[in-house]
Amino acid sequence: MSATGGERRVPEGSVPEGSVPDGRIPAGPVLDGPVPDGSVPDARAAYAAYLDELAGTHPDLLALAESLCLAAGVERTFLRRARLRFLPRTTAGLEAELWFSPLVEATGEHTLLLAPRAAEALRERLAHGPRERADAVHAFTEETHREAAPLVRWFEGLLWAGLFPGPGTDRLLTRELRRVLTAVTADGADADDLGRWALHYLPRLPDAVLRHDDAWRIRVVSSERLGLDLPPDASLWHGRTTARARALGRRELPIGVEARSGGVVLSRPPAAGTRPLRAPGLRTVRLAAVSALTPPPVAAAPVRLELTDDRSLSLPFTVLQRLDPGGTPVLSLAHSGGAEEIAVAAGDVVDGQGVQYAFLARDGAIVRHTADGRLLGVLPAPASGALRRSLGVSPDGGRLVWIEADEIHEHTEAEGRTSTLPLPEGARPHRVCFPDSGADAETAYGTEQGMTLRRRGRMDLVLPGVVAPRELSRLPGGRGRAVVVGRSGDLTLRWNRDARGRFLTLGVTALADHAERRIGSAALADGTVLAWAGSPDDRVPLGQAPWQITALAVSADGRRLAAVGGDSRMLVWGLGRSAPYEEVPLAFCADHVFAHPDGGWVVSGTGGPVELTTEDGRRHRITPVPDDTPEDGPPAWLRDAVLAEADRSGIASLLAEPSALARLAATGVGALVVGPYTPPPPGRTGPMDEIAALRAETRRHGLRIVVDLHPPRGPQDDVLLLDCVRRWLDQDIDGVRISAGPEIGARHLDDLRHLLDGYEDRVLIRSGPPTAAGFRSEQGDLGAESDACDLLQPGSLTIAFVQGFGNGNLYTHAHRLRLALEVLRSSGLRAGWAHTLPDAIRPAQRRSAAAVLLGLPGVPLLPPDLLGDPAIATLLELRRAHPALSRGAFDVRPYTGLGLLAVVRTHGGETVLCLTNSGAEPATVDLTPGYLGVPGPLSLLDLLDGGTADCAGTAPARTVVDGGGVRWFLLLPAPGRAYPGTGPVAR
């Protein structure tokens, strides 16, 4: 390598041997492997000894190196000036000797960098030598680097301060380190560049500098923002110091979360259609994920996730749940990652004595659990990489069998031994399993003659012409017969005496049987379920599922049949009686079902609610949202929406500020309601141009437009109204809100409905005037109109808000809210309902009133300025993340506290408690399961700060709601309890 180009890199902490051709430079010290920064006394001693040797053999080279040791980097001009300043009698060859010496870590075309430990040893020699010599080197370095970058001068100043500490050194170090710490925690690319520089140069500072907490914080924050692991000497620092350092650089970053049928998907930035969640991070967001279906002590360890920018990741969960005969979950297990197969013991297994449930993971490992859900152990994946399949568990849980590399393997739990079961020469195993009764596994293997079913102690059953069928089952009752499902789903009866068998073109998707009661069943591709006793020749239709069935199971007593099909429901039929099936709701998507000996079921599948924990300890429950939008209901986009309500001045403000609409769209608002407008006469555009300009801007941000109309009055006004709405629809508006009045009745709304139906996904909202009259009379007036409207905006809700917030005692008027919503819900009206924020509410109470609206069923309409409030924006994110808040049932809970309103929202497996204090003073609330109307004990997850509190009947959870404050809690089962479920529903 020439001295004029190229680059040499030396691993930090070791010095390679090297010398110039004349051999005057001794070889460098040999160190045992790389040495971490900050704790290398052996390395220092080795370099000190090497420099002592160099002092005797090549003192000029040592003197030149000492003159460079206070510099961050040594340019060629710096090297030349140092030689001329301190060693004027030497030649330029000395520079070349240093350039290629073991003291140098790396060289470039114009710069060299001393090895960190070499520079440290050189500075120690300089500090222990004459002070005049050290002052001269310091003055020379300052003078030569006077025009260098500020970071270079900063680094060299800290080097000198650490080398010769004085009375003000600590204050100097604290000030200078804090200045850089502030810079690396700022936003922008400059902070990234500074972080890279800090990670490279900070470890080269003296120990007196590195012992400062801020020096360590700079390195931690720099690593965090660059997405790197912590520096190798992290173990030398207290964990709390490191955690606080990492928190300095974090920002609240938005990520998208979507609970799918298979698990949870995270995206950063949030992908379209995902639910928003904010988590602390910088370059990397770190979260822990665990299935919410498995409370301690059954719960598995959380999965640690790291999400960088412009990245999405998917985390699947495999779930198994045991249900009692009534359909209530009594045990849940979940494993991160997908499972290839799941096996369940068909008999009674004593807790802790055998395997009740076994998961075959995708990597080939077999995870075993006892009957009470505890982890029994893991059989590791085969080292050969061979695939495993066809997992089975004996009825007593004592043995497992599976196919591996075309061999049958059997594992005995009592002995902890795995052996290979014999097969005829040339046989290829197709399936191995344990029947519901009996201690011996049955093996299906293929030969030239066809498929053979073999069980120890029984005659082999040969199935001529059958090659690798999709499913095999012995016909209930035995007698040497079997049911075969081919690859195309055709079902065939085969037995030894008839090589042809009997062919039934049925398109079977699942089989199940009960050998003792000679009951069999099959599911067809169209969802039809057949059942028979004795022979499939006597099959009878049992019913039809709403989807294609993937698995069937006959209960232990032979009286019921369960079916699943990749849906969050299990269907149960009664055998031997004509009755519709019952639906058992599940918290995940099930694709397999097994009969449990107690008469219940074991269901397995994927997905379910997931709990995410951020680095700062906040917990978030992510629940799958079923697609339960009614076919004849409002447009799908309106189902979970929040609408922004802007008058003429508000529209002007939105158009005047380019980023205003972008900020509004970022809150998750579904549409902008603008107006009110009066339809212009024919031939005049009036507000049409203004609406067109606004529509052009909102379309770019994904926002919809709903126009608020004040109907005209006159003999031809109905024609004028329809013509105006048609012209606006042609300008691509998304709906109309019609203000109340006696001149607008059911006939006018029917005409508008027919007009809007000619356009896709358009909404019609009917608003009523504020009235103190009872809601029942108001509802009677709107009853006929509700068939045409998508949303009704009853005025009685407005009165309840004005009265409640007007005197700071919303609870005493909560009966108005309850009455209004209960009548709407029970009246069978087609329309949903909307709530607007009354103008009469005082400014100081607008935030509390908006929080109440966001916690009530229906579609809230809020002004844009309030939607931009950070507190309201947080509630909007929570509302989108928890379907119970937007589409759940509700109940207003009684409470005697002045100004306190408590609303419980339930949907699917979610229950959310919304507490709002409309008064000025704090309100203390004691929450118990009885008060909440939910079986306890419970854990309350605070959706706003991520904290938790437990409550039971005798030990309530006490919480304080500040004056004008809001608290939202997600109700969870207490630790150690199964996930709450509901019983079956007849269909």
TrEMBL record:
Residues 1-38 are annotated as: Disordered. InterPro entries: GH, Quino_amine_DH_bsu, WD40/YVTN_repeat-like_dom_sf. GO terms for molecular function: hydrolase activity, acting on glycosyl bonds. It comes from the Bacteria. Residues 1-11 have a biased composition (Basic and acidic residues). This is Uncharacterized protein. The lineage of its organism: Bacteria, Bacillati, Actinomycetota, Actinomycetes, Kitasatosporales.
